[in-house]
Structures are given as structure tokens and as C-alpha cells.
Amino acid sequence: MSDIKSSDYKVFSRFVENLAKKLTKFYYLKLNKKFVTSNKIKGKGYDPVTTADKAFEKFIRKEINSKFPKHQIIGEEFGHQKSKSDFTWVIDPIDGTRSFVIGNPTWSNLISLNYKGNPIVGLANFPVLKKYYFNSSNKSSFVVENNKKRKIKVNNKVKFSNMKMSVAFHGGISLDQQKKIPKILKLMQFPCVDALSYSHFAEGKLDVVIQCSNKIWDIHPLIPIIEAAGGIVSTWSNKSAVKAGNIICSANKNIHNQLIKILKPVC
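Above: the chain's sequence. Below: its structure in C-alpha cell form.
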């Protein structure tokens, strides 16, 4: 990532900050009303998508194309807009669609900018909570709440004995597999609410977040925010989180390494 200049970071981070504000305004002007829900995998489970998901993604794509017309875009709902650019935007228009459907305010708009496949700038915008998280470099992450910007850091001095852990399996591992990791079951004492848990981790409110079955648009926007806040993020088998899948983020190497060992029976 050494060939990304600080001036480039400034351009991109300003763009995502402005986009967060526009997305929240767009929600209250256009989408805070009745919507239609459909199931993307009829007969095979439940994976909801709403008319709001699609409207958000169209809006985000329009904003990106207006500012960075040569960049590639990958979105959950409308696929891959290809080009020869090394820059690719990855979009989850509504992360936590189930929460959105039932009126839970924890859903978000997730957007990352990737350079040569690696996420370098991330945005997690929570319209109903009226706050957003983003990074302005590979060493600085922020939360903006009530129009106040605050730099955030993970709680990297925490010990295994008193860490706060949030876990969600999302149906990604069976009950028999869960029985192979009893220590994790015992330690999962805090609720997990999709991207909000990763965001809370980045500001030191949680010390570990473990999730199953993340797609690239679920995790790519959080990777640069987490890493710039000093956190460690990988797959359960300690591979790059850019691959997505089963994800763990920890506040320090000691905790991360211990939990990777505990998770080994289900990797």
C-alpha cells in the first residue's frame, strides 16, 4: 500500500465522509417509508432484499461514477462494473437487511475502496443511529456522531481473562461443530449486530468479534477501519480477511493467536 499517497487518502476519505452524509439524507428523504421485500433464495432459506437495498446501491453507484468514472464497482445487488482501473469500490447497500426489515436501527451502508484488490478506505454509515465510521489513512480511524468527529482505537491492552467478545454464526457452522469449540460458546457474552459490532470493536467497546459466512461486501469496508484503529482481522484459519468467509478480529496478537487455536477444530 506504499504507493498510495497521503493526498490520495485525503481525496478518498473526504469522498466517503460526504457520501455518508448524503446517504443519511437520502434515506430520510426517499427511503424512510414502506418498502417491498423479496427472498433471493426462495425454497432454500431466507436471504431478504428490499427495494431500499436496490435504491441505495443505485444512489451509491451514481455518486462513485460521478467522482471516479474510471473506477471499477462491485455491488451486492447489481454485480461488477469492470474497467482497467486498479481501484475498485465494493458496496453493501444495506448490511443487516434482516434488521432493516424488522425496524432494528443497527443496519448500515458499507462501502470500501480497494487498490489492487486490497481495501484501503472503508465507510460504515448508520443512518438511523446518525453516525458513521471511516478511516483517513492506514493509521487513523474515526467515528462521527452528533456532528462530532472522534479518533478511535481498539483496546489493545486488554487481556484474555477480561475481554468482551461478540459472536454470530449466521448458520455458518452446525450445532455439532459448535460443540467442538465450547470455550467460544462460553465466552460469547455480548450481542452481535452485523457491522455495528465490528465498528464497536474498532472504537474499543468490544475486544473480539467473530462471525461466519461474511461476503466481501460484508467485511472489506470494515478491514481498513479496523486495521487503522490498531485491530487485527483475519479468517478463522489466520489467512487474509480479504478472502472473506469466517472472520475474527481481535484487539491484540496474544488474544488473536489464542482464539485461532481454539477455533482450529472448526476450520
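The chain has two domains: 6-152, 160-266.
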